[in-house]
Amino acid sequence: MTTTAVIIGLILALTGFFGCFLPVIPGPSLSLLSLVILSYAKNWEPFSITFLIFMTGLAVLVTVLDYVVPITGAKKYGASKRGVWGSIIGMFVGIFFFPPWGMILGAFIGALVGEMISGRKGKKAMRVVWGIFVGNLISIGIKLTYAGAVLFYYIKGMLT
C-alpha cells in the first residue's frame, strides 16, 4: 500500500510539473496533492502540518496568479478583449498541434489575430501581443517554480 501511494504521488508530482505547460491540467493542485499523499503514506512524517498549510497557501496563490498575471500583462499593453480571447483560444489549439511549444506559439498567433480583428495593425498590434505573451510566460514560470519546488520536496521526502 505504501509503495503504491508513493508511486501515485510521484506520478501526480510529475503530472503537476508538466501541467504547468498544459492549461487543461491543474499543475499546482496535483503537485500539492502529491505532498499530501506522500505524507499520508509515510504516517505524516516527511512534512509538518505547517509546511503542508504553507504549500497549500502557495498553491492557491499560484493558481490565482495564473489567471491574474496574463490579464495584467495584456491590460498593461492595451489588449482588447478579442486579443485576450485569441490568445486563450490559440493556446488551446496550439497544444494539440505542437505540444508544448504550440501553446506559446498559439497564444502569440491567437493574440495577433484577435488584435487585428479589433482593428489594430502593425506595431500597435505587436506591442499588445508582446504583453500577452510575456504575461503568459511569467505565469508559466511561476507555476514551474512552485511545481519544481514541490517535486524537489517530494523526492527528498520520499528518500527519507
Q: Explain this structure to me?
A:
The chain is mainly alpha-helical. It has one domain (2-159). It has six helices and no strands. The protein has helices at residues 2-18, 27-41, 49-76, 81-97, 101-117, 122-159. Helix 1 (2-18) runs antiparallel to helix 2 (27-41) and helix 1 (2-18) packs antiparallel against helix 6. The radius of gyration is 18 Å and the shape is elongated. The model has no long low-confidence stretch (mean pLDDT 88).
Compute the number of structural domains: 1
Mean pLDDT: 88
Q: First CA to last CA: what distance?
A: 17 Å
The assembly state of the depicted protein chains is single chain
Calculate Rg over CA atoms: 18 Å
Largest sheet: none
Which stretches of 5+ consecutive residues score pLDDT under 50?
Answer: none
Number of DSSP strand runs: 0
SS-based class: mainly alpha
Q: Sketch the topology as an H/E string, one letter per element.
A: HHHHHH
Anisotropy-based shape:
elongated
